[in-house]
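From the pipeline queue, job 12 of 40. The input is one protein chain; the requested action is below.

Action: predict structure.
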Amino acid sequence: MVPDELSAGLTDAPAAGVRLGGMALRNGLLVHGPDHWAVALRSPDGTIRVESGPKPRVRGAMSELPGLRGIARLGEAFALLPVIKRQVPEVQLPFEDGKVIAAMAGSSLLSTAFRRLGRRSPAEELMVAVLGLAPAVFALHDSQLAAYHGVEHKAIAAYEQGTDAADAAKEHDRCGSNLVAPMLISTVVGNTIVRSIGARGPLAGVAVTLAGVAGSVELFAWSERHRESPLAQAFRRPGYEMQRLFATREPTPEQLEVGRAAVAEILRLEAPATAPN
């Protein structure tokens, strides 16, 4: 699953005032703002536990340059997860599951086998790229995680639209799933180019991945700024269909309570004047 942190700060804040992103957990929800994070989860005794703290940031003019800013946001996202896990050990991250870990290992082994075949056609490059997505798809087949993914979208949309989470759609235009199609395309094109010039090895793979992230995030931001254009709508369509078909599920009222608690806490930290009473 691609966290929404990747696009944070690249487009304007919503009319509500503070731009929020988030990530579904297996037992709750992570929500983040410009400078803080908040986690709400359902404890075994049925109560809702809420924790929060400052968000690690990559600062400096270089981190705001087009292309580099997407990579900087990716670094922040990866730096945030161990911070949360250390402060809230009970948090169950999306990939903390034996079946998903097994899928990751299998995907890695198959991808390595394909790479050892040498020169590949664009179709074979696409197959390798799709294999890399398999663990994320596998994780989202878990009904609890998919439901909290729906909570994430509904809770954030409710804040942005001034409505209640129960009335908001479970699909969200700013979901990280919108990055899947451009990253697949950029990975296939990038790997085809580097192999055509004879570049090999892990460094070439890392370069292609980072370039794909950078380009995809910039496209993501452009689609947010031009959301009514046909091209932007086409860009978002594959991600929307993923959300509609399997990546999100309608949550229960109890799960929505967890989402409301997470949003209330992040607004307390980021926007005291607009936080709910």
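Job complete. Strands lie at 21-24, 28-32, 36-42, 48-54.
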